[in-house]
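Long-time lurker, finally posting.

We've been working with Dolichol-phosphate mannosyltransferase subunit 1 (Rhadina sibilatrix) and I want a structural starting point before designing mutants. I don't trust myself to interpret raw outputs, so I'm hoping someone here can both generate the structure tokens and explain anything notable. Sequence follows.
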Amino acid sequence: RFSGIDYEIIIIDDGSPDGTQEVAQQLEKIYGSDKILLRPRAKKLGLGTAYIHGMKYATGNFIVIMDADLSHHPKFIPEFIRKQKEGNFDIVSGTRYKGNGGVYGWDLKRKLISRGANFLTQVLLRPGASDLTGSFRLYRKEVLQKLMEKCVSKGYVFQMEMIVRARQLGFTVGEVPISFVDRVYGESKLGGNEIVSFLKGLLTLFATT
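Top reply, 14 upvotes:
Generated this for you. Predicted structure of Dolichol-phosphate mannosyltransferase subunit 1:
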């Protein structure tokens, strides 16, 4: 409120059973519907379509995308904005693997999978960014629209393709170290199927970029 930044918060909820919509409705009453925009959908339709759905309602020139379970802390948003202004970047991506970034609340297996995924991606695609699988990012709105038109991946590999396509199209990417704290309630969706999908997607990108 005191940052001098003109902002709106768009909440996309795909019929989750955890009371997200009720909480968002309360926030809307407190802060006003010009600041809190709840834009629910009847069922789970995927992350990429959620981005497109949210973009339809975004009125600003930049869009920050983050998880709503506070795994991504809002305190980093001013740093994203500072970084963007500093280098006039098209994308500013949060990184867990650079500077004082880190991950908290993951077991060793999850850390190894994430590190391994990033290492494989670095070796095969040389994307010029240190964290390919995170989703806490700031995008120039028109850049996000162009990337959404190009990206075909779903699931875990989607975030990686966004950065790879951005480099391919000549967009600039800056990074801000972030602390990622795993959700306190609920479970991660990363399982065997997602890992297989990631490897298939990685090989597809390697063959097509």
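Before you design anything, note these points.
Residues 1-60 form one domain.
The beta strands are 9-11, 36-38, 62-65, 91-95, 102-104, 137-140, 173-177, 179-181.
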